[in-house]
Design brief:
This protein is an alpha/beta fold and 388 residues long. It is built from 15 helices and 16 strands. Helix 3 packs across helix 4 and helix 8 crosses helix 15.
Length: 388
């Protein structure tokens, strides 16, 4: 069986029909050659040749049969999760997580590096490069040979496709050429994007959002972020900031945000701002809320109120079918989103009131690493994420 080396065979990577069929198999999970021919209007001969190539390259496998036309049995196809692998890297506030991820989103091996946000960007990137190399060296040689690219998930404003961090406030980074720097250090193509987009991509490929091709992610942690997907494609905007709702103005005369403006959404919802306003750690605030202490009830009820307003505005702007509520504030303190659907419905424009679903993530602690790998996989499957 031939080895499919995306790293060096870029001409093949861009073969439209090859990746169109691969994308459709990923989307439908299991599908026959006849069904592919009906969907694409391609000839059975062409489908057969490309599927043979995909099987020889180890990206697709035959998994069983179903009843086909005129009583014939049709062979089912699915993605070979062990056909290729991706290195996913999550750069978070207190750690760098590196993982080897299969095409089905399973993490085979991982490595954790301590992260000091005060370090220079180049020092951090050197550690990431060394960590990737060390992890690849310790895994099975056959797996290492099938690694196709590296994905990086990181907070901040990240250009696309250049992978430059214009600003990462948490790390005090400005104009850091993440992609270019790492590609000089390691012998792989590197994709870099904002962590909220990678969360939405991961849930869309492997988690609870697979049925929602028009979707929005609202991510609440120490800040507030957002991402938008339409017809299976991430929307980016001029500076790759489309959907970033943390700094939309909710109250023109509201609290001062760390961006220097007044009344941004994140001043009411994110953990760092709630901590600042109460002068208490977030765990203590929610504990006090559970005890129904009035000051904590006021803060958390206000956060829920503004979150519902933001969801209603997002539904009106983007008309998503699914709204993914993600991030540490949602996952660690689910009481924040208690009864949120009923509250949101009060603010949503009435024609859209039954048009959306509020979804919680299914991917757990490895979501950052899996999201970074989903960024890579999505780029190789993005040719036809439409409704065919």
């Amino acid at each position: 069986m031939s080895t499919f080396n995306l790293k060096y065979d870029q001409g093949r990577v861009r073969k439209y029909h090859y990746f169109m069929l691969l994308s459709l198999i990923q989307k439908h999970k299991q599908i026959s050659r006849t069904q592919l021919a009906n969907l694409t209007k391609m000839s059975h001969t062409s489908i057969g040749k490309i599927i043979k190539e995909l099987i020889n390259d180890g990206l697709v496998i035959e998994v069983g049969q179903i009843e086909g036309e005129v009583g014939r049995r049709a062979t089912l196809l699915e993605i070979n999760s062990n056909g290729s692998y991706i290195v996913g890297v999550e750069v978070d506030w207190n750690a760098i997580k590196i993982g080897i991820v299969a095409l089905n989103g399973k993490v085979l091996d991982k490595k954790y590096l301590e992260f000091d946000a005060k370090q220079e960007a180049e020092t951090v990137l050197d550690r990431i490069a060394d960590g990737i190399s060390a992890l690849i060296e310790q895994i099975d040689h056959e797996i290492a040979e099938k690694i196709i690219a590296v994905g990086i998930s990181i907070p901040g404003l990240i250009t696309w496709p250049d992978g430059e961090a214009l600003i990462v406030p948490q790390f005090h980074w400005e104009k850091v050429q993440i992609k270019a720097y790492l590609e000089k250090k390691i012998d792989y193509i590197v994709y870099v994007d904002n962590h909220v987009r990678t969360v939405l991509l991961a849930e869309s490929l492997f988690g609870n959002m697979t049925e929602f091709h028009d979707s929005v992610c609202i991510y609440i942690g120490s800040g507030v972020g957002g991402a938008v997907m339409m017809n299976g494609e991430i929307l980016r905007g001029h500076l790759n900031t489309l959907g970033e709702i943390g700094h939309i103005t909710m109250e023109p005369n509201g609290a001062m945000c760390d961006c220097g403006r007044l009344g941004c959404l994140q001043t009411y919802v994110c953990s760092s701002e709630i901590e600042k306003q109460s002068q208490r750690p977030i765990q203590e605030i929610f504990a006090a809320y559970e005890r129904k202490e009035s000051w904590a009830v006021t803060l958390i009820d206000r956060a829920r109120h503004y979150l519902c307003l933001a969801i209603a505005n997002v539904i009106c702007m983007y008309n998503p079918k699914g709204v993914l509520l993600a991030g540490p504030m949602v996952q660690e303190y689910p009481i924040l989103v208690k009864d949120i659907e009923a509250i949101t419905s009060k603010y949503v424009w009435s024609p859209l009131n039954q048009s959306f679903h509020l979804i919680h993530p299914s991917i757990g602690k490895d979501s950052g690493v899996i999201g970074a790998s989903a960024l890579v996989l999505n780029e190789f499957l993005r040719f036809t994420n439409d409704d065919i």
